[in-house]
Amino acid sequence: MVTAMHMSDGLVNAPTSLVFAAVAVVGLVLCLVRARADLDERTAPMAGLVTAFVFAVQMINFPILPGASGHLLGGALVAILVGPWVGAVCISIVLLVQALLFADGGLTALGTNITNMALIGVFTGYGVALLLRRIARRSRGGLAATAFVAAFVNTVVASLGFVLQYAIGGSGGAALGTVFVLMVGLHALIGVGEGVITAATVGAVASVRPDLVYLLRGTATPLVRRSAPSPSAPSPSAPSAPSSAPSTGGAA
Amino acid sequence: MTGRRGFLLGFLLVALLVAGGLSSFASSSPDGLDTVTLHGCTVTETAGGEQLDGTCIARNAGEHATAGSPLADYAVFGGEGTVGLAGVVGVLVTLVLAGGLFRVLRRRSPAGSAPSRDD
């Protein structure tokens, strides 16, 4: 059985839901604008598959304590594979599909869920991965270690998003201090699982197609950049130009 | 290096296997967030669903607006043992939505330029 895994409606009050819905919309629009630069014929299909993969892996709740489980959030995973702008859109699509089709995550809680997992989670994971990028680019082991740490941190920090929302407009039922301690403690354990899954996935992709790992851009096998040659730029075959010059001159 | 098409197909196959097969073995214990929102309550399974007693955040949770969806709670029409099928449908729907959006957003190579080296 796959259990519901995201915030339901009613856990925070309406004004708080509205504020974070606005945060999510503004953040997502910015991500959609910036995502364009990272999407081309090669990376667009990859981004689609990464999104489907995150949906699949989020279904797999793994036990962390007796009576408690955790599942992938995917922030660092998408950030490392397709970049933060595209990645935040990936996670948002997963959350949208889960809320609309699978009754997982409330509709009025979409803003808070997107803020926590798609914005906070993805950009935290990406920030940590950027800090460790030199290690990540050095070796396969370095990349796996970077993925693990980035994923661990993104899980814990994303969980703080809920604590923040509960502090601002929680509907009550538990003391804020208790919520903070439990959220961080449980998500530190979940973060280990998140780290293992992220390191394994990123490592597997990097071993087959390192050119499709966003974080490794510019270091892996040199790629022909489609956008590089512009019509006005000097042609690399310039030295042969004199031999062709007479023929063009003759035609004129 | 594996061809790009082969790699993408392999990636899809893994996603389908995870959602369609591995999902049956997922833990049914509440996740991190649910553990926190249920803290302080006892959960009793009743015919009408879960009954919460005590004081906890989850008592404020509303009925889900799409609870009547044919795929609600990762089951097809609420059927036992349909989680894998629900997962496969979810993977394909997600792939079509995300793949379509990213395809629309992508920068197209300028007309007349040499085809990209894909594989």
From TrEMBL, chain A:
Cell location: Cell membrane
TM spans (from-to): 47-65, 77-102, 114-132, 144-168, 180-208
Membrane disposition: Multi-pass membrane protein
Keyword tags: Cell membrane, Membrane, Transmembrane, Transmembrane helix, Transport
Gene3D superfamilies: 1.10.1760.20
Pfam hit, one: CbiM
Domain of life: Bacteria
Start-end of Low complexity biased regions: 240-252
InterPro entries linked to this entry: CbiM/NikMN (IPR002751)
Stretches for region Disordered: 224-252
Protein name (Swiss-Prot/TrEMBL): Energy-coupling factor ABC transporter permease
Automatic annotation (TrEMBL), chain B:
The keyword Transmembrane is annotated on this UniProt entry: yes
Major localization listed first in the record, in broad terms: membrane
Location of the PDGLE domain: 5-107
Membrane-spanning parts: 83-105
A Pfam family that the UniProt record links to this protein: PDGLE
Alphabetic keyword roster: Cell membrane, Membrane, Transmembrane, Transmembrane helix
InterPro entries: PDGLE_dom
Subcellular localization, as worded in the UniProt entry: Cell membrane
Name recorded for this polypeptide: PDGLE domain-containing protein
Origin organism lineage: Bacteria, Bacillati, Actinomycetota, Actinomycetes, Pseudonocardiales
